[in-house]
Specification:
This protein is of the alpha/beta class and 246 residues long. Helices cover 29% and strands 27% of the residues.
């Protein structure tokens, strides 16, 4: 395990093997996870919350893309105790997907409506220490006025910071240049996959991290029946395209 820095309360985000390389991530920080569809973003979110629930923490899942039914199905496929964690309220799901009730019949939402739904959900789970917002991209596309995304993002980040909760936010794709979400997040994780010869390799890249010693930055990502795990990249699978991700 990596050497920890004093005076920081570290948490395990639940990805198997990650704490062999870093001491964890600081409690109360905002973690932005970016990647293309199918790279494991939602599984990482669920794993993060499940790990917290196992520790007795209260958790909140704000879903803007997956329906609550899909979240339940995916979580149940990974862990048999997931339905009981939802039923007991230890993991609270806030529905901001297209199946929720909105003022608009087309599931478009204004910034006031988004913030109102989120604040009601946060109040319903006082003391929550782990929060997921999945995903910012879907939320931005469904705002009635997409120019309001910046304000919505800033307010969501502020509210989770005020609670002292460790928060994972997801977004689609890996941009050519950083945007406001990447600048304001405390930690930035890229999930990606590439074909090298005839082998597809998934990677986990801790691209930016405040206070965390990085060793190494790039890890091999595995998606298995019980969730995500990481390990060192075998030397034979270290092609030059890794350099473009650092």
């Amino acid at each position: 395990m990596a050497t920890a820095i004093k005076n920081i309360e570290w948490i395990d985000i639940g990805v198997e093997g990650l704490m062999d390389f870093i001491p964890g991530l600081p409690k109360g920080d905002a973690i932005l996870v970016r990647g293309e569809p199918g790279t494991g973003k939602t599984i990482l979110c669920l794993q993060f919350l499940h790990k917290g629930a196992e520790n007795g923490e209260k958790c909140i899942y704000i879903t803007t893309e997956e329906t609550p039914e899909t979240v339940m199905r995916t979580g149940t496929e990974l862990w048999r105790d997931f339905p009981s964690l939802i039923a007991s309220g230890q993991i609270q799901v806030i529905n901001l997907s297209i199946t929720a009730s909105y003022a608009s019949e087309y599931s478009l939402v204004g910034k006031g409506e988004v913030i109102g739904i989120v604040l009601d959900g946060l109040k319903a789970q006082p003391g929550a220490s782990r929060i997921v917002i999945d995903s910012l991209s879907s939320l931005g596309r469904r705002l009635a006025d997409e120019s309001e995304f910046r304000e919505v993002f800033m307010r969501l980040l502020l509210e989770t910071k005020k609670m002292g909760a460790t928060t994972i936010l997801t977004a689609e794709g890996i941009p050519m240049s950083p945007d406001i979400t990447e600048y304001l997040a405390d930690h930035l994780i890229y999930l990606d996959y590439h074909k090298h010869d005839v082998i597809w390799t998934r990677i986990f890249l801790l691209r930016k991290s405040r206070s965390v010693p990085l060793k190494p930055q790039i890890l091999k990502l595995n998606i298995e029946r019980d969730g995500l795990s990481v390990e060192e990249i075998p030397i034979a699978l270290k092609p030059v395209w890794f350099a473009s991700k650092i």
